Amino acid sequence: MKPSFYNVSMRVDEDKYLLMNPLFGSLDEVDKEVIEFLDSWEETRDIYDSRIMEHLIKRGYLTERSDDEEMALMQKKCCEIHERYRHCKHAIIVTYDCNMNCAYCFESGAWSRGLAWRKKVISKEQVMRIFDLIGELNSEFPHIREEKVSLYGGEPLMAGNMGIIEFILEKGTEAGYRFDVNTNGLDLKEFAPLLVHYGLSPVRTTIDGPPEIHDKRRTNGKKGTFHDIVEGIEAIQDSKIEIGIRVNVDLDTIKYLPELAHFIQEKGWFDHPRMRFALCAIVGCVGKDIAVPSLSRIIKEVIHLSQEHPLVRRFRADWEGTVRGVPEPNLIRVMMNGVPLVPRSVYCEAHIGLMGYDPHGDVYSCPRFVGHPEQKIGTYIPLLKFTENYERWQNRSIFTMPKCTACNNSPLCGGGCAHKAFLETGDITNPSCKAFNAFTKHCLPYVYKRWKGRQPTNSV
Ligand code: SF4
Ligand code: SF4
Asked: Which of 24, 163, 389, 405: CA 20 to 30 A from 152?
């Protein structure tokens, strides 16, 4: 008998810890002495209360299995889980062009490939080929047949692309697919009737602060865009479309969150049944220098603001889902709802079949690498053909990165974001620990305290 290799303990309050074991799906709130007992097992094993020992065995924190046996079991469990998600998401990159020029754009690094390259728009033939391909992939994985297709860019919803967007929605709907879109929102008002007609949902757009702050960061080259985006949102808010509004923050703009929160409150959007708001920290860009704020500092600042301005709590923070992506539920939901913890061997969908098809005939698996041919995973014209990158992306897991394999946090962390790893180390096959560490150190104790008493957790 020994403590499980996959025990993870996180301090969430003075003497309180969350003890977790993703191999068993356990999460318990425990006192410091339980953690000390497990940490000094060899000395204390014979003197401990048998009832607590019994509970620790029942919840998988003490085990007869060797580390190797536990790892083999974990690998088997993760494989089964992730097989269920394969080829689950498809995105059409309508064009790399965009009618905004945001200072922090994570795609702008690819624009150095030239104006003609950037302005190319996906053709009708390519669109039909993509629908055929999705059909082929769906028939290969009938148990996870995915009918949702994302529209992505650059900016997919530019007024000049109305014709091709209508073609995509018409032909895709005939073929049985449904759509969602990521848009900067600038021409959303013009597209509203079309999106409502085809029931496209959700629409995900971005507002980066109150008007004067947003307009400094998100311009159309001549003027700010705040009011155009707000009008676009208003044009669809009474339809059945779900609306996700993202707020990108860095250390300069974060202090304006309370002001934005008041604007949203006055609009009645926080209580709108189909609107959601998410905070995201600015991310870096391949091929261009963008100052990336420390996630720890951003989280601390958001916590500080939330205490002074409770309205700020209405924003869901992206990093609360840092144990995010696949599979669900994430750690926060496990903690809040008492459902079993599910392990993950990969960080996100880019490693289990996310496919983005671009206007140049290329396929990418990570939205933040689109337009960077050194990371493309294949081509789809005339037939789908994967490059050697496909295997690199699909194989990136906690079992292929030695540092992660030896890390007991790994089935909660998933090895971190490959895009971040590339920015940090120049290679996607390295781990990226920073987000997980920032999340567990600053965010988890805060969320724990906020919801403590409201939701069930098991306690020893
Ligand atoms: S990325 Fe870092 S924290 Fe995450 S599993 Fe790998 S080594 Fe552990
Ligand atoms: S690798 Fe990172 S940026 Fe790319 S899809 Fe995954 S989480 Fe997103």
From this structure: 389
Per-residue pLDDT tens for 380-428?
999 999 999 999 999 999 999 999 999 999 998 999 999 999 999 999 9
Q: Report the residue among 150, 354, 366, 434 best suited for mutation to probe ligand 2: largest number of ligand atoms under 8 A from its CB.
A: 366
Ligand 1: list residues with CB < 6 Å. 398, 403-404, 407, 409-410, 413, 415-416, 431-433, 436
CB 144 within 8 A of CB 84: yes
Q: Is 328 helix (H, G, I), strand (E, B) or coil?
A: coil
Q: What is the pLDDT of residue 143?
A: 67
- Residue from 290, 401, 419 whose mutation best tests the ligand 2 pocket (most atoms within 8 A of CB): 419
Q: Which two tokens stand for residue 385?
A: 């053909």
Beta bridge partners of 458: 28
86-325 — its CATH code? 3.20.20.70
For residue 436, which atom of ligand 1 is closest to its CA?
Answer: 3
The rounded Å distance from CA 71 to ligand 2 centre is 25
**Which atom of ligand 1 lies at the shortest distance from residue 431's CA?**
1
| Domain ranges within the chain, ordered by starting residue | 86-325
Mean pLDDT, residues 65-77: 96
pLDDT tens-digit readout, 304-355: 998 899 999 898 876 655 444 444 556 667 776 777 888 889 998 899 888 9
Ligand 2 proximity of 423 Cβ (cutoff 6 Å)? no
Quick one: pLDDT band at residue 459, thresholds 50, 70, 90? very low
Buried b or exposed e, range 352-370, using 16+ CB within 10 angstroms:
bbbbbbbbbbbbbbbbbbb
Greater model confidence, 169 or 112: 169
91 lines ligand 2 (CB under 6 A): no
Task: Write the residue with the smallest CA distance to atom 7 of ligand 1.
Answer: 404
Average pLDDT, the chain: 89
How far CA 29 is from CA of 130, 296, 342, 402, in Å, comes to 48, 24, 17, 30
User: How many Å apart are CA 348 and CA 68, to the nearest integer?
Assistant: 25
Decide: 416 in ligand 2 pocket, CB within 6 A: no
Q: pLDDT tens-digit profile of 90-108? A: 999 999 999 998 877 877 7
11-19, long-range: CB within 8 Å, 24+ apart, which pairs?
A: 11/445, 12/444, 12/445, 12/448, 12/449, 13/445, 13/448, 13/449, 13/452, 16/448, 18/335, 18/444, 18/448, 18/457, 19/61, 19/460
